[in-house]
């Protein structure tokens, strides 16, 4: 039995917040978890702002980064060295886009222990969500009821959508990892309490809404127009036509001297 762990302060804090939301605010336990998720996401707003700034910075420098990747395509080691050098010179932190996700893992694990304690010592009050026919008990495992499987499907779908919205400027390998992660993670969630799935679905829906707002606030970089050889140039881009040099004006001929006519001398008689 673990008497103390680094997550114990977080567990105590989450339990106190849930008790306050249920006892003082009058929310059911399941909706207290939803409210707790919103509170956690509000506390992560500074990291989210940093994440958005990092994405904007990556978006601005995306053409130069693609040139580096193209230039050192055959040498992956050199490519990584040049990219890291480029990150340092332009003060780019590619890991900043993952900070909100990493910050939520301690909360996620601590909430798991809180709900596990709920299952051992059920608190007073209704533990169902959206009625007993949907989620009878938020402390039960996700695979114990059909609603748990439905929540897992919503979790995977919302996670994929949020990843697509928030990882448009990430490297391909990072994007693939984030797309595969929810599918792998769902095998673990099957044995987790339903309340934990509710927490993760709520935070994913928050991320989707945040991504939609971010896409509006972050204009896409202008894509150069593709032209064919038959496309007529625009007026402001038309190349000036070189004027043909005018034929030089022939210099005026000097006035001709009057021809001198030699007169024959008359013979003397």
Report what the structure shows.
The chain has helices at 8-23, 29-43, 45-60, 62-71, 76-89, 99-120, 146-166, 172-189, 194-217. By secondary structure, it is an all-alpha fold. The chain has a domain at 8-59 and 97-217. It is elongated, with a radius of gyration of 38 Å. The model is unreliable at 221-231 and 233-242 (pLDDT under 50).
Helices and strands in order, then pairings?
Elements (H helix, E strand, L loop, with lengths): L7 H16 L5 H15 L1 H16 L1 H10 L4 H14 L9 H22 L25 H21 L5 H18 L4 H24 L52
Helix pairs in contact: 1-2, 1-6, 2-9, 4-5, 6-9, 7-8, 7-9
Topology, number of strands: 0
How big a fraction of the residues is strand? under 5%
Summed over residues and divided by their number, the pLDDT gives a mean of 76
Q: Rg to the nearest angstrom?
A: 38 Å
Coarse morphology? elongated
* Structural class computed from helices and strand pairing: mainly alpha
Oligomer: single chain
Number of helices: 9
Q: How would a crystallographer describe the biggest sheet? A: none
The ordered string of helix (H) and strand (E) elements is HHHHHHHHH
Q: What can be said about this structure in brief?
A:
With 269 residues, this protein is mostly helical. It has helices spanning 8-23, 29-43, 45-60, 62-71, 76-89, 99-120, 146-166, 172-189, 194-217. The termini are far apart.
Key phrases:
single chain; 9 helices; 269 residues; 0% strand
């Amino acid at each position: 039995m673990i008497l103390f762990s680094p997550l114990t302060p977080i567990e105590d804090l989450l339990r106190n917040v849930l008790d306050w939301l249920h006892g003082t605010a009058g929310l059911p336990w399941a909706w207290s978890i939803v409210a707790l998720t919103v509170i956690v996401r509000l506390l992560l707003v500074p990291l989210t702002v940093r994440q958005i700034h990092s994405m904007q910075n990556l978006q601005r420098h995306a053409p130069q980064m693609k040139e580096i990747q193209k230039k050192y395509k055959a040498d992956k080691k050199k490519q990584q060295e040049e990219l890291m050098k480029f990150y340092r010179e332009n003060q780019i932190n590619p890991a900043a886009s993952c900070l909100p996700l990493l910050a939520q893992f301690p909360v996620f694990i601590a909430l798991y222990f809180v709900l596990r304690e709920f299952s051992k010592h059920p608190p007073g009050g209704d533990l169902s969500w959206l009625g007993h026919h949907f989620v009878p008990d938020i402390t039960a495992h996700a695979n114990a009821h059909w609603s748990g499987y439905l929540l897992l499907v919503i979790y995977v779908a919302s996670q994929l959508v949020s990843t697509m919205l928030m990882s448009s400027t990430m490297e391909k390998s990072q994007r693939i990892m984030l797309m595969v992660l929810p599918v792998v993670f769902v095998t673990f969630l099957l044995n987790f309490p339903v309340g934990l799935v509710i927490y993760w679905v709520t935070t994913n829906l928050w991320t989707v809404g945040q991504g939609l707002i971010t896409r509006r606030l972050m204009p896409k970089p202008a894509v150069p127009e593709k032209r064919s050889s038959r496309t007529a140039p625009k007026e402001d881009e038309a190349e000036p036509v070189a004027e043909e040099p005018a034929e030089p004006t022939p210099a005026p001929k000097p006035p001709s001297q009057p021809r001198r006519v030699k007169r024959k001398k008359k013979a003397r008689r």
